[in-house]
Amino acid sequence: MTFTRLFCTATAALFLFLAGRAQSEAGDLKVTEMAVTTKIVKGNPIDSVWRISSSSVKALYCFTRTQAPKGVDTTIKHIWYLDGKVMGEDEMPVKGSRWRTYSRISVQKGVSGEWRCEAQDSDGNPLKSITFRMN
Question: Are 92 and 65 in contact (CB under 8 A)?
Fold first, then answer.
């Protein structure tokens, strides 16, 4: 085996190893807390919404606390659904082993139905979801 061929084979093996490691680390991302809330104060939700009137708020937030292997730099996506229809999406960075983030959706008066916010990893795999009813 020539040096060039050996070098290319070793480089390819290293690339595959590192790609597999990054994929497995992103796959180890876990949602440890999730809440739909009316407000975020000092990086934390102030309440947890299960049922709410659309006339009582202008916006809602989905708070997510994650846990990941040390050194992971990935993203998490929140997808907001109303009666199964996508109403909004937000992609946020996850830059630490313990990370908090949140997304926001505007609420229009008179909107009602079953809502769900789903957290997905960077590959689109569902991590956790939360549901609530809006009257």
Answer: no
Angle subtended at Cα 87 by Cα 113 and Cα 36, rounded to the nearest 5 degrees: 65
Longest distance between any two alpha carbons in the chain, whole Å: 73
Q: What is the pLDDT of residue 71?
A: 87
Q: What is the DSSP letter of 56?
A: S
pLDDT of residue 115 exceeding 90:
yes
Contacts of 84 (CB under 8 A, 6+ apart): none
pLDDT, tens digit, 9 for 90 and up, residues 31-63:
999 999 999 999 999 999 999 999 999 999 999
DSSP E strands in the chain: the ranges are 30-37, 40-41, 44-45, 51-52, 59-67, 74-82, 85-94, 98-106, 113-121, 126-134
Tokens of 132: 């609530």
